[in-house]
Amino acid sequence: MRDARDLLHAGAGVAVSAAGRHRARTLEAGAEAEALAEAVLVAQGWSVLDRNWRGGGGELDRVVLRGGELRFVEVKLRAEDDALADDAVPAHKRSRLRGAARAWLEAHGEHATAASAFMVVWVDAAGRTRLLDDAFDG
Question: Is the pTM of this model over 0.90?
Answer without folding.
Answer: no
